[in-house]
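Hi V.,

You were right to ask for the full record rather than a summary. Here it is.
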Amino acid sequence: MGTKQKVKKTPKQRAKKAGKILLILLLVIAVIAAAVAVVNVVSYSSNRTFIKEAIQPVSFEEQLEPELMDGHYTFFTDREFKIMQLTDIHLGGGCMSTQKDNMAINAVAAMITAEKPDLVVVTGDIAYPVPHQAGTLNNKSGAVTFAQLMEKLGVYWCNVYGNHDTELYAYHSRKDISKNVYGNKEKYPHCLFQAGPDEIDGEGNYVINIRNKTTGDIRQSLFLFDSHSYVDGDYFGFMWKYDSVHENQVQWYRDTVKALTEENGGATPQSLAFFHIPLPEMKEAAKEYQENDFQDTENVKYFEGVLGENDMVICSGVYNYGLFDAFKETGSTQGVFFGHDHLNNMSLSYKGIRLTYGYSIDYLAYPEIFKYGLQRGCTVITVKPDSSFDCHHENYYQDKYQATGEKETVILDHGMADDQDHAGAVFDFQAENNMD
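Predicted structure:
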């Protein structure tokens, strides 16, 4: 019996076979991508349905309505003005984050419903489009979900961008989100976000004023800044090289304070500032405080909270463009509020200016953080009729905050130092993967 000869394929036949294999691979990838897209749509739609059907509007005795005056949204009132700072909400908006997104929605809604703030300020990272945790690169879905939540609550709000809101690999840019979500006043009339001047860096540099209803004087100006994302080639934030408010933004601040002073009859208005990434001066203040054995110094006065990140790290901007110095020199800004480091919530005064980390919301970014609760909540800021202000943190896990859905059980005793110790926390999880 003869041996069967193997027929050698011609180059044309080999190319045809390779083409078939490639086509099959492309079809498989397309099917998987389509399946993920469908699952993502179903997932984030479930939370939007929850918002539409379960969340109820906040009941106000007297809700203040802002007016657009000289390009700035302006509230007129003679009473105390209540601001709630929220930060690092981290809505994934994808199939892998549905449950944790729902927890975040519940927390935000419960605190706003109970506190009834005149204005909510979100200091960055509303969206978190990190694919291995969220299941999507679509950062618009988290932004839209939050905007829909706030619109259903019927509360006026504004925001600045964080480093995660528009990651390099995310689908939508800051300009796109600004125009089609936060800047869409037809869909979201309660959102007071403004893109700000085109000639300075960033998206979302703007001012909101609180004026005396009787005299028209500015009681407090709220300055909101884009503190950007990463620098020095650290495009994905793996090296912890964070950006800061840039030099031309600092000049815009100076110019705006001067213009508002003229509007205010020559009196420099008191102001508060909000952005995502902490000032380098927060690191300076904390270092001075630690080196003095956690006791007040000539420059530092402690109010509340802890540095809960591992080794009490503060992930401030790499470069200092003089924003804190401008605050001092103008004599306008009394307090500064930021987020970014989810386990830090210290509030202290440094050289006469109050620097405050907001309580974070995050259920998603830090590994296992959904199990823990001491760091989760809001910051309540009260602007008084005499233009002074007070602020304090409120933990979410209090009876006064009743969630619409099921309120999760968390560990409230997990190694974080109490306010008397003023020291850092050692959590059971590590925040070493740069997910702040």
